Each structure stands twice: as structure tokens, then as C-alpha cells.
Amino acid sequence: MGFSEILLIIISSAGLLHGVLFAVYLCFIKKKRTLPNLLLGLILIFMAFRIGKSVMLNFGNDLEPLFIFAGLAFLLLIGPLLRWYVLGMTHFSFKFSNRYLLEVLPFALVFIMSFFIKENWFDENNKQAIIVFGSVLIFIYLHFAFYIFISGRLLYKIKKRYKAVVLTKSQKAIFEWLHVLIIGFIVIWVSYFLNIIENTIPYITGPIVYSIAVYFLSYKAFQLKITDIDGDVFKKNDNESLFGRISKLIVEKQLYLESDLSLSSLSKRLGVSTQKASEVINQYAKQNFNDFINYYRIQDAKKMLLDVNHQNYTIASIAFDIGFSSLSSFNGAFKKFEDTTPSAYRKKGVKQTFNNPDIE
């Protein structure tokens, strides 16, 4: 065995090992053992069997037909697991239904059939055996493609359902993750399918592509903290009505004019935790608490700075009138929102009024 072959074995097996370790982490080590994490772990384990078969078939000799067919059969199980995983990540309190067992039937039939395959069937160049093998192979890959398609279709429908809803950070992370995951499976499927079409690409390409994909998917999973969340983040809540209450207090009741207003005091008025109030403001206003309050203060400041009835007011007095406790914090907030200082904003407004006397 040459150096290039050894290198290919290492590269193609690296992703396999990484996937198994990731699966062990999800199923046995991680404290939060959710159903979606278990499903993802099973997908990685069964993909490892499938990829392991490919590596051994490419570099090994006289591989048992039982091992070949069993490895292929696992694709019939990975498809349903992928669909269930998408459901588990997008539905609150997802649970298995007995009818889901019917989706495992193709896997069970092919897996059991693999125990009756004899090596001499292929040694004797049996045309019937080759036709059966080819038919089963095509069915397995079309079955896998079908499940990738319906999983993508399912994700599309769910995203469309939430199109008019303001998504939380966790909900966005799940949609992004599932989108990347399905693309990863498409890439893996294409690399294997092209191989069975008259060896369009080398057989070892499949395991190498899988290795690259599983490393990238692992990176995205931890980047998005996807193993810490599941379909529970789509549980219906009163966030929208809570933000309505916050807006009514801040905007309509002009609570933003109070200089001692804080997230803590606002939360007490609402009867919610500071974390909850902060989360809702971030979700719907796309701002943190301070920026949310200061935005409305700055809008008042802009009117007062240009109002002829307030020309005798110092900038400091305006700052205190609209709720700021110091001139420096007012200047900083004004510069952040308007990209200029209050004094420069007032001078510019006065100059425009002088040049255009018709402006009231």
C-alpha cells in the first residue's frame, strides 16, 4: 500500500471517527439529552457504518456481501431519521408516533435480506443477482434522495409559516442549522450517486466529502449552539403582547423621560424578570434596553433643538429634560443615532431656517 493510499485512508476515516465521537457526546456525555440530539447522534452513527463500508470496500479485499448490503441498508434508516430530526427541531414537545415505524420497514427488509446474500452469487457472474443488486442499490439512493427532499420541503413550509413572525435568536439558529444540514446531505448524496453512474468520480470521493461535511457541520452546530436548543423554542408565548405592554409604557406613557428608568424598574412594573424583558426588547425592537430608551429621548431632543421656543435652552437643560442624567451620556447617545453632536445639529438647523425664512 502506497503513501497516497494511506493518506486517503486517514482523510476518509477522519470524518468517520469525528462523527462517531460527536454522536457519543450527544447521546451519552452531554447533560441535556434531548430527543433531537439523540436523533442527530443516531444519524452520525449510522452514517459512520455507511462510510466505513465505503472505506473498507475501496481499500479492502474480499469484503463480505453481508457487510456491503448492511452498509447500504443504513441509508434507508438515515432518511427517516433526518425527517424526524427536522420535526424535532421545529415542533414543540415532538414525540414519536407509531406510524413512524412504517418508515423503518424498507430498512428492516433490506437489512434482513443482506443475511441471505451469498458471495458466490457474484463470483459466478449471475445476471439475475446483478439485476437484483442494481435494483436495490437504485432504490436505496432514490429513497434517501426522497427523504432529503421531503425534509427540505418540510423546513421550507415551516419557515414560510413563521415568515410574518419576529423570530428569536434560537429560532433563527435552528432554521440556519437545518438549512446547512440538508445542503450537507445533498452534497454527500450527489458524491455517492455520481460514483454509481459508470464511476463518474472515484469511489473514495464519497468518504472524503463526508469527512469535510461532518467537520463543517460540527463547527456550525457548536457555533450556533444547536445542541442546547430544540423544538421547545417554537412554543407559543406571550412575547408579542409583552412587547406591546412595554411599548405602551415607554412610548405612550413617555416613561423614557424618567432619568432613573432602568431595566430592573421596568421589569418590576411589568411583573416579569429582567432577562425576559431584555429578551423581548431585543427580539422585537432589535435593540438593547439602553438604545431602545435613548432612541425616543433623541427624537424629542431633535425637536427641541430645532424648536424656536427652545432656542434659549442650553443643551444640558434639554438633555436633563428628556431623561438623561448627564450631558456626556446625552452627547454620546446623540452622536450614536445621528452621527453628529447636539450643538452641530442645532447650528445646522438654525442655518437652514435662516437661509429659508419661509420654514416655520
Descriptive overview:
With 360 residues, the protein is an all-alpha fold. It has 2 domains: 232 residues, Up-down Bundle (Rhopdopsin 7-helix transmembrane proteins); 117 residues, Arc Repressor Mutant, subunit A. 71% of the residues lie in helices and 0% in strands. It is built from 16 helices and no strands. Helix 2 packs antiparallel against helix 4 and helix 13 packs across helix 15. The longest helix is centred in the middle third of the chain and has 35 residues. GO terms for molecular function: DNA-binding transcription factor activity; sequence-specific DNA binding. It holds the Pfam family HTH_18. Keywords: DNA-binding, Membrane, Transcription, Transcription regulation, Transmembrane, Transmembrane helix. This is HTH araC/xylS-type domain-containing protein.
Structural key phrases:
360 residues, mainly alpha, Arc Repressor Mutant, subunit A, 2 domains, 71% helix, DNA-binding, membrane, transmembrane helix
